[in-house]
Design brief:
The complex is a heterotrimer.
Chain A lengths: L1 H6 L1 H20 L3 H29 L2 E4 L20 E4 L1 H24 L6 H20 L3 H19 L7 H31 L4 H7 L4 H18 L7 H8 L2 H25 L8 H24 L4 H25 L4 H40 L15 H14 L6 H16 L1 H26 L15 H19 L1 H17 L1 H9 L3
Antiparallel strand pairs in A: 1-2
Chain B lengths: L4 H23 L8 H18 L2 H4 L5 H25 L34 H31 L2
Chain C lengths: L1 H26 L3 H22 L23 H31 L13
Helix pairs in contact in C: 1-2, 2-3
Classes of the chains: A mainly alpha, B mainly alpha, C mainly alpha.
């Protein structure tokens, strides 16, 4: 039984959230307690499967799973010289993303059990939430291009529905429509790119396409059609305009997961640049590396400067998440720029990539935590306007403590996890260009300044009369925040084991293009 | 809104055929072009025909949102349970463990070459078609119902 | 030459549809027309997939009416297109209901007047 479960972990990873999502409307008919119990069970099951799968991959190497058959050549016989079936390929980088998604989904589900209990239409809310989780998990686990498109669309659709969930006099629906429109255009562009690749190489499997890829004109077009929408979904700067709208309009628990969903797009972008196109002789790493670096610096700087002037606390945090995405793009860009130079890659390229991936993990934790605290404040006060908030430190001490942890982590202050990853990025980027490194530090200082302002506006000052009856939020919400806060502090105090056992294998997996292909096609 | 008697009678006459044809497309999905989604969409067209010809309040006495959302949930559940059954009885998620098993449930084997089509073939594919058909029928109908209920509020 | 052009004709149609769709999305003011533009782009993507799956002399893999010595095509792209159509239906339905709610709340479907979001 146990080994059976272990073997089928990749399938269960998708089946568990889907099953939870489909049963929620039925459980909802039996009453709200049954539904809450079912949702909690589903969240724990999904997260448990995610952790188990990640542990297996990090412990004993990449896992592949063929849907509908034992082997990709079964029933098609010798004609199937290429893997035509849907396959999952979970390597260490995917495992890292699965860890992020599982942890975050567990925390936000527990949080939303209390935070959303006053809303109507909860059946649909939870169904969509688990659909979003399934979509994101699928995006990071799949080894098939078209399957990736399907999961991208699932996560976009569920995300848009959740953004619009609080209709809020139409404003949330407007944000949801914007998100849905942009996601759909992006996804169609991805679909056309997949069509171009399929027409040339007769394969949809990522490894199979990667092993056959030339670098003709059509492939360049496909690369642009893939990279631009994924950068948009990740919230990189020239295409970041949807982030503040949808992050602010969505319920806070959903926003915390939308951050993870945009990082799944970032995962796909890295996967395509490194695994699909990387190491091609004609592929100019320097050009694309600098493309990512420029996107990253722009995102970091524009994001933080836009954030400084915001009045709405969730819009402010949304601009900060654009800015944090910049760090990841910067780190990955530096590594891509020196991909052809083995010496530089070993000297600082790997460190830069490790910084980027570590920052993805950390960002999901502290950014999620910050959005959850913003949601907690909104839950008690009913406003997100910084001018109208104040003095909440007297009545909501726990929320204040969690906010402080998140704010110090995002600013990169030493005992918290943001410092560990930012230090890796500063160090390695300095070797490529000292100017960029200094710029990244300036962004960090501006981030700190912005969060000091928010902290002051929300929690300090004399207690306000209109929030006299504001109390601490219910226990499940505190528990959700506590899970994330605990990991923020833990990773901040002990970054090395995390770096050695999770981040370093992920970096190796992302750079090992031949290994990724060999896992599916065999040989090397 | 309610349409003229001609439209209403035509809709009444045609919707059983729509449903039957939809069901045919669903059940023959593994033999001929068609399948769960297409058949479900055809069946939902029958519902759409009734919806546009009648008054919204009249029609919701016969076609309930609750029943349709039940259809949707049951279809989805059936799909995922079939997928999991492949995992338990076969060797992989969604594995077609019924095909060629000789079971009465779509398990007959057919020899190579053209034949007029045996319904009881293809294993779980036919069952998956049925699940998808039920789900799409419920899903599309509920979308239509919700959209129409929004329209009704505007034009009392 | 002419036969080559004829073979390329569907691809030109795809490009034309994409341009028309994007044009409608950028230039039209009515929300419903914007969504129609999106549908056009969607159809273009589906048509593109079908076009790349065309094989001269290939037979559709329908079991019950195959000829004597068939060369059947592997219907991967058709399966992809079908999936993409299903997803398209879901997106379109969701966005149309969003448009309905927006019209109800704002009293207009003009994209220039729908901007309560700012910042």
């Amino acid at each position: 039984m146990f080994s059976f479960c272990i073997r089928h972990l990749p399938a269960l990873l998708i089946a568990a959230p889907l099953f939870t999502a489909f049963v929620v409307p039925l459980a909802g008919r039996l009453g709200s307690r049954v539904r809450a119990a079912w949702v909690a069970l589903g969240a724990f099951a999904t997260a448990g499967i995610g952790f188990a799968l990640a542990a297996k991959v990090l412990g004993s190497g990449p896992v592949t799973y063929v849907f509908g058959a034992l082997d990709h050549a079964q029933t098609l016989g010798a004609a199937a010289a290429f893997p035509i079936r849907i396959m999952f390929e979970v390597d260490a980088f995917s495992a890292l993303m699965i860890l992020i998604s599982s942890l975050s989904s567990l925390a936000i589900t527990i949080y939303s059990l209390a935070a959303e209990s006053r809303q109507s239409g909860l059946d649909i809310f939870y169904a969509m939430l688990f659909l979003l989780v399934a979509g994101v998990l699928g995006m990071v686990a799949t080894g098939d291009l078209f399957n990736f498109f399907v999961f991208l669309e699932i996560s976009s659709l569920a995300g848009a529905a959740l953004v619009a969930y609080r209709i809020d006099e139409g404003v949330a629906v407007e944000a949801g429509l914007k998100y849905a429109l942009l996601s759909t255009i992006g996804a169609l562009s991805v679909l056309i790119a997949i069509g171009i690749l399929f027409a040339q190489y007769n394969a949809l499997n990522l490894a199979a396409v990667a092993s056959r890829l030339q670098f003709g004109t059509l492939d360049k077009i496909a690369l642009v059609l893939l990279a631009v929408p994924l950068a948009m979904k990740a919230g990189a700067v020239p295409m970041h305009f949807w982030t503040p709208d949808s992050y602010a309009a969505a319920p806070s628990s959903v926003t915390a997961f939308l951050v993870v969903s945009s990082q799944a797009s970032l995962y796909a972008l890295f996967r395509i640049l490194y695994t699909l196109y990387g190491h091609l002789l004609q592929f100019s790493w320097v050009t694309f590396g600098w493309f990512l670096i420029i996107l990253g610096v722009l995102s970091a700087f524009v994001g933080v400067t836009m954030a400084l002037t915001q009045k709405d606390v969730k819009r402010l945090m949304a601009y900060h998440s654009v800015s944090q995405t910049g760090y990841m793009l910067l780190g990955a860009g530096v590594a891509l720029a020196v991909l052809g130079n083995a010496e530089a890659l070993a000297a600082f390229g790997k460190t830069a990539l490790a910084g980027a991936l570590f920052h993805m993990f950390n960002n999901a934790l502290y950014k999620g935590l910050l959005f959850l605290t913003a949601g907690a404040v909104f839950y008690r006060t009913g406003t997100r306007n910084l001018d109208r908030l104040g003095g909440l430190g007297h009545t909501m001490p726990w929320t204040m403590a969690f906010f402080m942890i998140g704010a110090l982590a995002i600013a990169g202050i030493p005992p918290f996890n943001g410092f560990a990853s930012k230090l890796l990025i500063y160090e390695s980027v300095y070797r490529l260009s000292p100017f960029l490194s200094i710029l990244a530090m300036v962004v960090s200082i501006l981030t700190l300044a912005s969060f000091v302002k928010v902290f002051h506006a929300m929690f300090l000052g004399p207690p306000r009369a209109e929030y006299a009856e504001a109390r601490e939020v219910p226990r499940p919400m505190l528990a959700g925040m506590a899970i994330l806060a605990a990991f923020v502090v833990l990773i901040g105090l002990l970054p090395r084991p995390f770096n050695d056992h999770m981040i370093a294998p992920a970096v190796e997996a992302l750079l090992d293009r031949v290994g990724y292909i060999a896992t599916i096609l065999g040989g090397s | 809104m309610q349409m003229t008697k001609i439209v209403r009678t035509t809709a009444d006459l045609f919707y059983p055929f729509c449903l039957t044809f939809g069901l045919y497309v669903v059940l023959h999905g593994h033999l001929s072009p068609g399948g769960g989604f297409q058949g479900g969409a055809v069946m939902a067209t029958g519902i759409a025909l009734l919806l546009v010809s009648r008054h919204y309040a009249d029609i919701t006495r016969y076609i309930r949102k609750n029943a349709m959302s039940l259809c949707e949930a049951v279809g989805l559940l059936m799909f995922i349970v079939l997928g999991l059954s492949g995992l338990v009885l076969g060797g992989s998620f969604l594995q077609n463990h019924l095909a060629g098993s000789g079971s009465w449930l779509f398990g007959s084997t057919v020899g190579p070459g053209p034949d007029p089509g045996t319904l009881a073939t293809s294993g779980t594919v036919a069952l998956l078609n049925l699940a998808v058909g039920i789900e799409v029928f419920g899903g599309l109908s509920i979308i239509l119902l919700y959209m129409l209920s929004g329209l009704e509020e505007d034009t009392p | 030459m002419i036969s080559r052009l004829l073979l390329a004709f569907p691809v030109f149609t795809v490009v034309a549809l994409v341009i028309l769709g994007l044009g409608a999305m950028l230039l039209k003011r009515n929300l419903i027309k914007v969504l129609m533009g999106l549908s056009l782009v969607e159809s273009a993507a589906n048509l593109f997939l079908i076009v790349i799956g065309y094989r001269q002399g290939g037979v559709a893999p329908i079991f019950t009416n195959v000829p004597e010595h068939p060369v059947m095509v592997l219907p991967t792209v058709q399966a992809l297109t079908l999936t993409s159509i299903v997803i398209g239906v879901a997106t379109t339905a969701m966005m149309l209901s969003f448009a309905m709610i927006i019209y109800k709340k704002y009293g207009t479907a003009d994209v220039h007047k729908i901007k309560k979001l700012k910042g």
